[in-house]
Write a structure and sequence with these properties.
Blueprint (H helix, E strand, L loop, with lengths): L3 E3 L9 E7 L5 H16 L4 E3 L7 E9 L6 H5 L3 E9 L23 H9 L3 E5 L8 E2 L2 E2 H6 L9 E14 L2 E8 L5 H11 L4 E11 L2 E2 L4 E2 H11 L1
Helix pairs in contact: 1-6
Length: 235
């Protein structure tokens, strides 16, 4: 049975909130479009939107709102996020993740746990980061990733974000797995790249899963295939 939270009127036009565990290689827009397509036959034209983009190479929690509850999207987007991220030391990528190929050969054997703990302390609290060029941020009216994929040089504006918690889950070089609780607008890919540089090495984001948005948890989210089957058979 799929979990869908409705308002008191109990229909998708009046407002529903759907937690989705986004599959690997799906975009957040793929999730929205699939749900909109499933609702079309029973509901006709209907507003559907998501509360925060999750990269195609990431999995995990996406909040989808329908109907009148799309007005709440900005509120959900403003809430803190939690991620489990795996960094791989020894190389970097232009996109800061595996959308582009790793390059370089950086030393990392000098990174022991005390050294790592000292470095990570610099990334807790209010920090300044530069978003990756391979992102959906608009630069001169166009998405940055479109310019980056054409090989254009892009100067991304720095921004302040807040990292509330940064916990080591597993440390087994060249891999490092972190639990990260952070503010809206934090790019985990940039965090991975910056931590690599701060360790006098290089690192990229090898895996990412969003586990929380505010009080919502991925454990309570619907698998995409279960949700689609439910919407196609129950409406």
């Amino acid at each position: 049975m799929c979990k869908i939270l409705f308002n008191e009127e109990g229909d998708f036009h009046s407002g529903a909130l759907i937690l989705v565990d986004k599959p690997l290689k799906w975009t957040s827009f793929d999730v929205v479009n699939k749900i909109r397509w499933c609702l079309k036959s029973a509901c006709g034209k209907i507003k559907v939107g998501h509360a925060g983009t999750l990269d195609p190479l990431a999995t995990g929690l996406v909040i989808v709102c329908t109907g009148k509850w799309t007005k709440r999207i900005e509120d959900y987007m403003a809430q803190e996020k939690e991620y489990v991220a795996t960094l791989c030391y020894g190389a970097v990528t232009p996109s800061f993740d595996l959308e582009t190929l790793p390059e370089g050969d950086f030393p990392y054997r000098h990174i022991d746990r005390p050294y790592l703990d000292r470095v990570l302390e610099r990334f807790r609290g209010v920090i300044t980061q530069v978003p990756p060029a391979y992102s959906a941020i608009r630069v001169d009216g166009d998405r940055a990733y479109k310019k980056a994929r054409k090989g254009n040089e892009i100067e991304m504006p720095a921004r302040q974000v807040v990292v509330n918690e940064l916990e080591v889950i597993d440390f087994n070089l060249p891999d490092l797995t972190l639990r990260i609780n952070c503010s809206k607008g934090t790019y985990i890919r940039s965090l991975a790249n910056d931590i690599g540089q701060a360790c006098e090495s290089g690192a990229y984001l090898a895996g990412l899963r969003r586990t929380k948005i505010g009080s919502f948890q991925v454990e309570d989210a619907n698998k995409m295939e279960d949700l689609v089957a439910f919407l196609q058979t129950k409406l």
